[in-house]
Amino acid sequence: MDGFLEKACEIDAQILKNERMSAHTSFHIGGPADIFAQPVSVDALIKLLKLAADLGVHVELVGAGTNLLVRDGGVRGVVISTRRLCGVKIAECGSGYAVIEAECGVPLPSLAVFARENSLSGLEFAQGIPGTLGGALCMNAGAYGGVIGELVESVYCCDLSGNAFMKTGAELEFGYRKSVFSRGDSVALSTRIRLVRGEKDDISALMESYAARRRETQPLDMPSAGSTFKRPEGHFAGKLISDAGLKGTTVGGAQVSRKHAGFVVNIGNATAADVLNLCGIVADEVKRKFDVELEREIRVIGED
Ligand SMILES: Cc1cc2nc3c(=O)[nH]c(=O)nc-3n(C[C@H](O)[C@H](O)[C@H](O)COP(=O)(O)OP(=O)(O)OC[C@H]3O[C@@H](n4cnc5c(N)ncnc54)[C@H](O)[C@@H]3O)c2cc1C
C-alpha cells in the first residue's frame, strides 16, 4: 500500500488514509478504508485505476454511498469515490429533444434540476433519488415508472485497468435494479442522456408531486440506504414485511422503519452486522409466512 500511496499523491486526487466509510454512506455505517481517493477529473480516475491494477491493489468504486452497506471491518485496499466528477452540459439539441452529457459523480437530484432548468423532460422521477449518475447506472435506478436506463444513449466507460471504451445504452444490459456495471468490472465515466422538450411548469409540478409522495411515505429524516430488498415478482417487499408484522423490529441500532417497512433505518450507532442480522430475520420471516424469497437491493462491501 505504501507504493500505491506514494504514487497516488502525484495524481490529481484527494487521498485520505484510514478514512471511516460511515462518513461516506447514507446509512452512516462502515469501517475504515485503507485509502479513500477522490479524483478531481475523469483522467485522474483512470490514472488511479491503472496504478491500482499495476500494483495489484484491490479497488472498490463508490458514488454517493446511498445504496451501500460497508461492513464494520472496512475495506482493505483503495476506495475510489466519484463525487468530485460533476461536469454537466447540453451536448446536442435537436427538434423536440436534447442530449445531456454528464460525468459519473453528478448527483441525480442536480441532474434532474439541470434538465428542468433547460425545459427538458424525462428525469422528473430522479429528483428524489440521492445517488450519483454512476451509481444510478449500476443499479438502473428508478421510481414512479421512470428508470435511468431508458434515457441512456451511450456511456464512456473503462475497465478496472483503466482501458476506456464506449457502450451504447442497448449494450448495457439494463434490467430491474441491475446493468453491466453491477458486475463490478467496469466503471461509467460519463454518460449521454436523451431527453425531450417539455414545459418547465409541468416538469416542476411533476417533480413536486413526486417529492411530496416521498415525504409522506419514506423515512427521509433517518439514515438509510433506500429500499433494502428488491421487489419480488408479483409482490412489494415493503408490504410483505409489514404484513409479516415486522415494522419496528430492531437489532442493535438497525430498525425496520415504522413509516415504510421496505426501509431499514439507522436509529443510532447501528453496525453493518446489526443491519445484516436484521435483514436475515426479515427475509426468514417473510419466507416462512409467505414463501417469498427476498433479495437484497443494497450492495455490501468490505470485511467483517
Ligand atoms: C432515501 C433514499 C431513497 C432512495 N430512493 C431510491 C429510488 O426511488 N429508486 C432507486 O432506484 N434507488 C433509490 N435509492 C437508492 C440509491 O439512491 C440508488 O441506488 C442510487 O442510484 C445509488 O447511487 P450511489 O451513487 O449512491 O451509488 P453507491 O451506493 O455509491 O454505489 C452503488 C453501486 O454502484 C456502483 N457504482 C457507483 N458509481 C459507479 C460508476 N461510476 N460506474 C460503475 N459503477 C458505479 C458501486 O460500485 C456500487 O456497486 C434511495 C436511497 C435512499 C437513501
Task: Describe this protein's structure.
With 304 residues, this protein is an alpha+beta fold. It has three domains: 80 residues, Uridine Diphospho-n-acetylenolpyruvylglucosamine Reductase, domain 2 (2-Layer Sandwich); 121 residues, Uridine Diphospho-n-acetylenolpyruvylglucosamine Reductase, domain 3; 83 residues, UDP-N-acetylenolpyruvoylglucosamine reductase, C-terminal domain (Uridine Diphospho-n-acetylenolpyruvylglucosamine Reductase, domain 1, Alpha-Beta Complex). The protein is built from seven helices and 18 strands. The strands form five sheets. Strands 6, 7, 8, 11, 12 and 13 form a six-stranded antiparallel β-sheet that branches. β11 and β12 form a beta hairpin. It is globular and about 50 Å long. The two termini are 20 Å apart. 44% of the residues are buried.
